[in-house]
Amino acid sequence: MAKRVGMEISVAISEVVKLANADVIAAYPITPQTHIVEHLAKLVADGELDAEYIPVESEHSAMSACLGASAVGARTFTATAGQGLELMHEVIYVASSMRLPIIMTVVNRALSAPLSVWSDHSDAMSVRDTGWIQIFVENGQEAIDNVICAFRIGEDRRVLLPVMIHLDGFHLSHMIEPILLPEQDEVDKFLPKNDYPLPLDPAKPVSMGDFAPPVIYSETKWAQEVNLRAAKEVILQCWNEFGNHFQRYYSPVECYHCEDADVLLLTMGSFSETASMTIDKMRKEGRNVGLLKLRLWRPFPFDEIRQAVKKAKVLIVLDRALSFGGPGGPVCSEIRSALYDEENKPKVVSFVGGLGGRDITVADFEEIVNKGIEISQKGSNKEFEIFGVRE
Question: Which residues, in sequence order, are CB contacts of 231 under 8 Å at separation 6+?
């Protein structure tokens, strides 16, 4: 039976990586991810986790080491944040293209310059087209649950893809929360042993990811796209079975007071909890508002988004990353694209906020909702609104 503990979320993530019986961890410490790999190094050094811990000289090397470990069939884990994710960017593409089920927690951090160790989603959005499955979590419990799910999803023979679990730096990573930590036997029943079907074997050498001429490159990339989209069915199945096993269910898009809402706010990550408090306050005041929490970022949940907004008149999207010179935020851009051909689509209003770790309070979210409604009615000469900027 799961035990309820008060634990720093980063440490809890390390504990479930241990429960998942990871074989190899290769990582480089970077704020605010460091506590995850520090604790994993301690677990290995103390003999509590029978795994190889590879201390590398950079994040580029960390992901490169993960490639080799995963390719021989080892259950492989790493973690990074912000600039570290950018340094391994080149190798991230290789992991997905070679169908290697590496699991990585990305503790989201704003990208330089100016230098910031605080959280936004600029790093996550920089890797949105790398072919990885990407899942955003709202709190510590969701983080550990989805790390367990990530191993099962990525290693499923119908998938064989790497998975990123995104959690907000400091807002989550360094917080101590009450967490239900499962027992080893519970995880063992839910998570089968890794059985990678194409492990490298020195006795039968092969080449992987070799030079591809134009005559086959397009077909290769299309096969990768088809597989990533098909992974959604396995993700849904895994979340359902996880719910049956642990009584906590997840879905690509989660609705909060959406059924009769004329106005919907869409968020991702830890700010969703604050946004929920705003929705509660406004509902008590008689306002028909609701909240959409976007959890599955890749593969993008087109059907679930369309279903969730079909009764709404206004959809206000909060991005925590800026698409420079573009239409505002990358999430809102994708939402608009998903709804482009829909006949009864809501008016979509784009906000960008929370950059570089700036907080958004309950009152701030209420202001965003009210201003979004006003823009939907009166229009605006801006492509998007950036919230909280002192002009």
Answer: 133, 153, 158, 159, 161, 299
CATH fold of the domain at 3-246: Rossmann fold (3.40.50)
The pLDDT of 169-173, averaged and rounded, is 98
253-386 and 3-246 share a CATH fold? yes
**Percent of the chain at pLDDT exceeding 70:** 100
Q: Which long-range contacts (CB under 8 A, 24 or more apart) does 281-289 make?
A: 281/362, 281/366, 282/366, 282/369, 283/257, 287/263, 288/260, 288/261, 288/262, 288/263, 289/257, 289/261, 289/262, 289/263, 289/264, 289/265, 289/369
Level-2 CATH architecture, domain 253-386 = 3-Layer(aba) Sandwich (3.40)
Q: What is the pTM of this model?
A: 0.97
Question: Mind listing the pLDDT tens digit for each residue in 48-95?
Answer: 999 999 999 999 999 999 999 999 999 999 999 999 999 999 999 999
Strand 103-108: give its sheet, edge to edge. 52-55, 24-27, 76-80, 103-108, 163-168, 133-136, 296-298
Name 52's Cβ contacts closer than 8 Å, sequence gap at least 6. 23, 24, 25, 44, 69, 74
The arithmetic mean of pLDDT across residues 236-257, rounded, is 98
pLDDT given at position 210: 85
Nearest CA to 88 out of 116, 117, 113, 57 is that of 57
From CA 18, how far away is CA 12, in angstroms rounded? 10
Domain boundaries, the chain: 3-246, 253-386
- Say what the pLDDT of residue 389 is: 85
